[in-house]
Amino acid sequence: MSYLKHPRLFTALLSTLVLGILSGPSHADTRTITTAFGDVEVDGRPETVVTLYEGALDSAIAVGAQPVGAVITRGGQNVANYIQEAAGDIEIVGTPGETNLEAVIALQPDIILASAWTSEEQYRLLSRIAPTIVLDVPAYQDDTWKRELTLFARALGRENRAADVIARVEQRAAEVRAQVEAATDGGQRDTALVRWMPQGPLVMAEGLFSATVLASAGFEVDDADLVKEGRPHSQPLSQENLSLMDHSWIFLATLNEDGREALAVAREAPAFQRLEANDTDQIVPVDGTLWTSASGPLAALAILDDIEAALK
Amino acid sequence: MAVTPRSTLASSALTPPLAVAVFFVVATALASLLWGAGPVSAIDALPVLIGQGTEEARFVVTELRLPRLATGLVVGLALAVSGALLQALTRNPLAEPGLLGVSGGSAFAVAIAILLGASSATMTTLVAQSGALAGCALVMLATRSRGLAADPVRLVLAGATVTGLLLSLTSVLMLADQRAADEIRFWITGSIAGTPLSHLRAVGPSLLVAGVLVVLVASPLAAMSLGERAAMGLGHKPGRIRLLVIIAVALLVGGATALAGPLAFIGLVVPFIARALAGPDIRKTLWLCLPIGPALLLLADTMARVVAAPSELPLGVITALIGAPVLLMIVRSGRMPTL
Amino acid sequence: MTLLTARQRNASANLGLALALMAAVTASLALGTVAVPPEAILDVLAGGGDTIHQFVIRELRLPRVLAGALTGAAFALAGCMMQTVARNRLATPGIIGIDNAATAFAVASVVGTGIAVAPSAMALTGAAAATALAFGLAGANGTRGYRFIIAGLGIGAIAGAVTQVMLSRVAIDAANAAFPWTVGSLNARSETAVQVLAIGLAIGYGLAIALGPALTTLQFSDPVAINLGTRLKRTRALSLACAVLLTGLAVAVAGPVGMVALLAPELARALGRAGKVPLTASALAGAAFMVAADLVGRLALAPLELPVGLVTAIAGSPYLIWILVKPSSRSLS
């Protein structure tokens, strides 16, 4: 049979070939991904993607995949605000803690990107539905999100996009860093990242995703050694110890829709009023679903936007 | 106590234990001003008491520890008195707002209010007291219809069942909204950290009303402990007395819960100690509860701050860890004094 | 009422409850996010059907329904025995601290306190430890009277406080991961735990039936029971041991699901003949209640799930309040 007799088939084959060359050789072959539950083989470029972890949703969208299912963000009814538009009309298949397996099956995914919290029993069932990636990347390190992004991209057959995405985030961080350095004095960039809870503030770890983004933008994040190794945040601080988070800048994360409201509540506490950042009005209320729950390149860009806005 | 407090005091051996108890409340109050989870140590705090000390020490002692002391005094007093009243009313030494589900009802009501976005202290107080009243009513209905009062364990079982149920229902509420869940989760463990004085002011009037009620019912309650017939012979109306006691308990427990969340076992332990010191007369018990309740609560709160510095343990956890062994001890000793 | 009609009444109660269980199971197999038509269920059960239906029914719904029915039956049977022994319909294993202790141990495993044992094994350990402690503290009186119950209450309170400390001191995400263990859920159960429960329930049910006649005499006062030839101490000890075993195994599967142990025997008594301890009927009622509650939990907020323990609490609360305040009282009061 001659290809010329079937021009449409020929075009299709040709375009596949061209696309294949453009997007690199990786997508057609079988890749082995090392996961927390052993090696997982993935073929080609999975079309239907379900993410059960916010960082996976972020990474997948960043490298050009369009996941069809995701879990809600902690404290919300949907995926996090910052990614809602990019995620589009996405099916909700559970909460970060509990996955509705039937909802996952209904989507008939080619691949499932799950969180490091996935239990072995859940994994066993998920992996029966589709190859399931539960990453085993050390948490709360400077490069955790980059390593997650690279591995998720590889699983999705889009490895070559990861480096571009990382470069884009780093470039943007450098831009914001220049603005931060222009707008603040050298000794005035010490920062605490906290979540205001009714029982007292949680001081976020220096290795927490948004803290590393703050650091990449030139802030010196300090958790005052309150956070135990491998934990995302401290235990709630006694009001008597608020001085431990007394820095030039405080980024105050909250799960409220309106961060200002949370700030107003925090300001009712007399100990809060004594903070240096309160006097200089350098307490920045930020969205907790982005700053304390999310991770990934798109979240980094959104956080950098928040930082830029805070300078004005 | 109601009519002739002085003569009641004089005619008994109440004075020595009362003096000791008052000494203890002063000591624990001092301790709660001197020790905390923060860097201001007792040596830093001591000068503040005579009007000196560093600026930071003055702030910590007067702005943080003093309001907490005030809240602790009020909450401890309210819970101890309500425990004594409930025990006298049900003639059951295990009747306690926490165990009977009165605090649970109150907490559940507040959890709903938090979920609906309530923030004003006055409203929270009102909601908490309504919830406590509902809890009380349920317990009383159960007591009357089933003759539960005769069997201390049945009443407590009923209370524990209701409390467990309310906790589950509170968990349902927590599913609905994460922000509220964080707040509720903190709140239902019980704490007096950071309770602003404005809340104390909001609770104040209703606690005053409760105080007046307590003064009114003390003597009739004592008479009722001799049997309802005897009380009626003395011209008391048991039905009305019971109602007044329930209202007083609801106001006290609701007020305390609005300030500190549901705290179990204070209402059990304190009247137990008071009875051990002064005998079963409810009037004497009440007198002794006034200092012992706050003393125990302040002791627990100071422990809550010190053991886990620089953070704090929930106060409700400490009271449970102190109170539950006392409950076991009461059972173990086999001394279930009938009232 | 003649003996014959009474027997018929019990038999028809059991039959009715068995039918209710069947209905709940069928509905649970058919309903969910993935719609499976009734004829497809039969296909799958017969070994055919398309792969999605096969997976959904065989891997997801059937094990879950099975776990629900087994835990429900175990909770209810344990509740029925303990209520009879304590002569108090509110004396369920959950109230006397077994649930709380199991939860505390399971949470310790989930939130990462360095304990590597699986949550379900920890839950079982907790249940056993609490009961042993309650027995120990109740002293010479053993299982009799209020001491055991109050000791259990106290232990439960301490275990609850310890759980609170753990939840308040770990990362928020870890606390969330432990949430199902604090309310009771069938979503994250361990298969081994279900198998162990199945064996335990078979043994427990056999023991319960063997104890049945003796338990029936326990509904009268001690002297009457002794006159009827019942060995009180032995009956009480065996019944309690059985109840604790069943509860511990069930909590290890589903966490502290409330109300089943209280309400299922209640329902069984209401349907059956007064005077006989409705062991089989309780187990059937518990299984049906649990399966139905889990189905509601799966459907109510779909695609999100409501843990089964919360459904039983919501469904059970009106009935509990009714029990507490209703004027009349039956033999178990």
Task: Give a structural overview.
- The complex is a heterotrimer of chains A (312), B (339) and C (333).
- Chain A is α/β, with parallel strands linked by helices.
- Chain A has helices at residues 7-22, 54-62, 81-87, 101-106, 120-129, 144-155, 159-183, 209-216, 259-267, 270-273, 276-279, 288-291, 297-310; strands spanning 30-35, 38-43, 49-51, 69-70, 91-92, 111-114, 132-134, 190-197, 200-203, 220-221, 249-254, 283-287.
- In chain A, 41% of the residues lie in helices and 16% in strands.
- In chain A, strand 6, helix 5 (120-129) and strand 7 (132-134) form a beta-alpha-beta unit.
- The model of chain A is unreliable at 1-5 and 12-27 (pLDDT under 50).
- Chain B contains 15 helices and no strands.
- Chain B is globular, with a radius of gyration of 20 Å.
- Chain B has a domain at 87-263: ABC transporter involved in vitamin B12 uptake, BtuC.
- Chain B is 78% helix and 0% strand.
- In chain B, helix 4 packs antiparallel against helix 12, helix 6 packs parallel to helix 8 and helix 13 (266-278) crosses helix 14 (282-306).
- Chain C has 333 residues and is mostly helical.
- Chain C has helices at residues 3-30, 38-45, 51-86, 98-110, 119-138, 145-169, 172-183, 191-217, 222-227, 232-254, 260-271, 279-300, 308-325.
- The model of chain C is unreliable at 328-333 (pLDDT under 50).
- Chains in contact: A-B, A-C, B-C.
- The interface between B and C is large, with 47 and 51 residues.
Biggest sheet statistics of chain B: none
CATH topology of the domain at 87-263 in chain B: ABC transporter involved in vitamin B12 uptake, BtuC
CATH topology of the largest domain in chain A: Rossmann fold
Helix fraction bin of chain B:
over 70%
The chain-level structural class of chain A is: alpha/beta
CATH architecture call of the largest domain in chain A: 3-Layer(aba) Sandwich
**Pair with the most extensive interface?**
B-C, 47 and 51 residues
Rg of chain A from C-alpha positions?
Answer: 22 Å
Radius of gyration of chain B: 20 Å
Residues in β-strands, percent of chain A = 15-25%
